[in-house]
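can u pls check wat happens w/ phosphoenolpyruvate
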Amino acid sequence: MIIVMKHNVQEEQITAVITKLQEAGFQTHLSRGTERTIIGVIGDERILTDKISLEVIPGVERVLPILEPYKLTSRTFKPEDTVVQVDNLAIGDKKIHVMAGPCAVESREQLLEAAFAVKEAGATVLRGGAFKPRTSPYVFQGLEEEGLKLLAEARELTGLRIITEVMDIRSLPLVAEYADILQIGARNMQNFILLKEVALTNKPVLLKRGFSATIEEWLLAAEYIVAGGNPRVILCERGIRSFETYTRNTLDLTAVPVVKYLSHLPVVVDPSHGIGKWRFVAAMSRAALAAGADGLLVEVHPRPEEALCDGPQSLKPKTFAIMMEELRQIARAIQREL
Ligand code: PEP
Ligand code: MN
């Protein structure tokens, strides 16, 4: 539930309410908006035998239930936008962050070439899978720890932060040692054990939407991470399954404004997996920013024709740089930066 405090509430009154709730075993979250101060409350509400007793505390205006099944991730609970800090990068703030790089780390040469190119074009985060969730067991599965080491070297040389996928709890400690942002892939969005485990790390988590997940299921998956103690969650729309077969998935850009309305978490869009063909990636990226995305996750490969994974949807460095120029104009038009 949320407690809306009166307009002219005093500091001591806010503290008194929070203390009372915490003593009763509730978790509280204070949100100071320009209009009102709101206290979000999580816990077994049956303990509060009558909410009327809260409403009579000085300074309290109203006590309202959170109707959504997700609580901590809802806008009702926290009206202001969450900004996820990744070292000096603020994701969800005015600046739009582009995370770019190859689908998979394949070699030192490939990764460094991609890293320098995306950095030059204005990306702030380098992507690259070391553990790859491949549909077929007979194809390249990733360089694993060697890939993580190459990512760390690329970070050292370029100053980019790194994002890489963690596929299971077995490899989580290793991946968390290297990654600046842990990526949970679409196929693992409802791997609840993994979600609970990443909740215990202090790393930012990028949670991809499952390709058959509703927005509510996606937010409930995010709720696992936040409720488990890690509020640093970034949501990523990466396309859902539809009847269409020309594109790899159907990039659901409707999810961007909807999720930003329902939740305070930052939202990024992955147009590469969303559409699956490099030719359309720039158009979808422009649309994503116009729709309100806080960032993009884009596949870039120095030689897509030689890629061991997702070549057809990977941009060449030059195409990526041209796209970034176009995106700067969109960012300007919507009063954001890139
Ligand atoms: C990826 O980012 O390379 C990836 C495997 O994405 P998804 O989980 O969205 O398929
Ligand atoms: Mn990929």
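The mean pLDDT is 96.
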